[in-house]
Amino acid sequence: MKNILITGGSGFIGSRLCEKLHERGYKITILDNLSEQIHGTAESSLFQKVKGKCIFIKGDVRNKMDWKEAIKGQDIVVHLAAETGTGQSMYEIEKYNDVNIMGTANLLEILANTEHSVKKMIVASSRAIYGEGKYNCKIHGDQYPSKRQEKYMKKGEFNPKCDICNTELNLVPTDEKSKIHPSSIYGINKQQQEQMVMLMGDSLGIPSVAFRYQNVYGPGQSLSNPYTGILSIFSTRILNGNNLDIYEDGLESRDFVYIDDVVDATILGIEKEEANGEVFNVGSGISTTVKEVAESLKKFYHSDISISISGKYRLGDIRHNYADLNKVKSLLGFIPKYNFQKGISEFVSWVKTKEVMQDRYEKSVQELKNKGLMK
Predict the structure, then answer these.
(1) What average pLDDT does range 239-252 have in this prediction?
(2) 267 and 28 in contact (C-beta within 8 Å)?
(3) pLDDT at 305
């Protein structure tokens, strides 16, 4: 039986990973600070899921003593603990750097300078490190467009253009060799976390794996946090009887990957030696538009709210990004089991069992407007 430490193990991904590893006979320790933004003020349903399945340490990755206590006797560290949300990262910069960068630095410093039993590290990276994904210009080939220019977005021209000839680009799946150029503090954090873990893992002789998760959704997702996950944001608005205001032209797209697929891929990374020293995309490999998300949720909730396409835009938002899964399929044998319609059906069924949360979305939008990040 192997001992596994999961940081952020009471969170959305961590709690599901804890459940599945518990079923497989692992001995699990969780280090989590039970952040109010995710868990609220009482014991959350996520925390209830892991209670009794793990040794729980309430602690903070910013505290080296908490790390030292948690890491004792561990064979594997799965480092999920992080501040998430691209928009929020653009004005809570110190907090994001403290948790995401210094929290990871604390782990690596302890591994470099003290005796330990850690034989493998897994780090949660993100599709956010790619910024805009991979595109193709008919004339100039593969392109990795820089941040979209406001002068075009003001005119309703939202698709990225070729930096050379200024023609509209065609979207293609983003593979692991694609250019890394994050467009948010969160994306920069994730790039640094990934590089730090992979570099130090190699230096210390600890096999390490990075997973670049796409847009993860499913049961257990926070329904009260207005900064992450459009499925939960839209669901909360619909269930409060509030209309949906979709930015740009509604055709912006993401790769939505179901929680169980993410956890299955992570377990393959834990158990397979072929994963060692590698970075992997984890997604569905399919591009789904925000408009399609909104219309699907409205249908599943049997709602009569209206959906409007506003043309508003948020500075720093990417237009498209979906994952090329060839590497994770060929090296780890990972095949997503959930398409979007199956996954969203499971998500909605779960949401319907929950208390309707207060809709804090407008407040979060106003924060972005006040800081000049929303147009």
Answers:
(1) 94
(2) no
(3) 97
Do 140 and 23 fall within a single domain? Answer: no
- Looking at residue 129, its pLDDT comes to 97
pLDDT digits (tens, 9 = 90+) for 18-51: 999 999 999 999 999 987 666 564 456 677 788 8
- CB–CB of 285/324 below 8 Å? yes
What are the DSSP calls for 175-207, one per residue?
PTTS----SSHHHHHHHHHHHHHHHHHHHHT--
Q: Are residues 51 and 181 in the same domain?
A: yes
* 189 close to 100: Cβ distance less than 8 angstroms: yes
Classify residue 62: in a domain, yes or no.
yes
- Average of per-residue pLDDT across 100-128: 98
Looking at the structure, tell me whether residues 360 and 326 fall in a common domain.
yes
47 within a domain of the structure (yes/no)? yes
Is residue 4 within 8 Å of residue 270, measured between CB atoms?
yes
Asked if 151 and 277 sit in the same domain, the reply is: no
**pTM of this structure:** 0.94
Residue in 189, 185, 130 with CA at minimum distance from that of residue 160: 130
Let me know how long the chain is.
375
- DSSP 3-state of 291: helix
Same domain, 44 and 146: no
| Beta-sheet strand order (sheet of 120-126) | 55-58, 27-32, 3-7, 76-79, 120-126, 208-213, 279-282
> Do 104 and 211 fall within a single domain?
yes
- The domain of 356 spans 3-134+173-370
